Amino acid sequence: MHPIERLRYVARASGADPDELVREVAGSLAAFAGEPAALVTACRRMVDRHPAVAPVWWLCARVLSAGDPGDEAWRALDELHRDPTVRELANALPADATVCVLGWPERLGEALSRRGDVEVLVVDTLDEGSGFVRLLARRDVGATDVPLAGLGAAAAAADLVLFDLLACGPTEALAVAGSRAAAAVACTVGRPVWGVAGVGRLVPARLWDAITARVELPAEPWELDEDRVPLDLVSHLVGPRGLEPTAEAVRHIDCPAAPELLRQV
User: Fold this and answer.
1) Continuous segment of H or E residues that includes residue 251
2) Fewer CB within 10 Å: N-end or C-end of the chain?
3) Domain 3-82 is of which CATH architecture?
């Protein structure tokens, strides 16, 4: 496939798993490594088309800040594939805990399946919870399908509220709709709230502002598929270094704030 056609194909893709999406983006960007102007345009097109996917921003920022963009694209992709966050999460989960999750957090399903000793309360946000319950059942993980009206009760009843973060800046994170309410309830009753970040999901303030500015706003804020969750409500983040207090984890943000990405195409 010609590089331009591949770029158009990746830009049009929607709903893809972030890791699969980043693999395709890396291949597309590597083809433009010797053309600086075309590379900048390609990166801007990628982040404009996938604004809520932090690993795409992270990859583009690294490529644009590197001396050898082609090598950097594959280096970043390898780092993403070796991300130990799921393993670290599985190790960090308390024994025999009841965990509250929202929607269909694919990566969390991998960690929960590795443990096998947890009970999961799955809140049916975005009409995805029932499918996730069935997935966990096939993996012999005990799970309860909780209607959206039971979000508060589930967050209060669980030992731990767990979110898969789409993106995380220094003071806020982006997670599936309902996450802010669940985190607020958990905090009021003294339950810990963990956000699962990982390679490519922590971004500096300037990129965070660009991400949130590009996320499409519906007519009403309650129609959004994602919530902006203040990190004051999140007690810990889970990433490649394992479980860390949130304030400590955000100190490790090392993604470059590539100024080329701040302009929209």
Assistant:
1) none
2) N
3) Up-down Bundle (1.20)
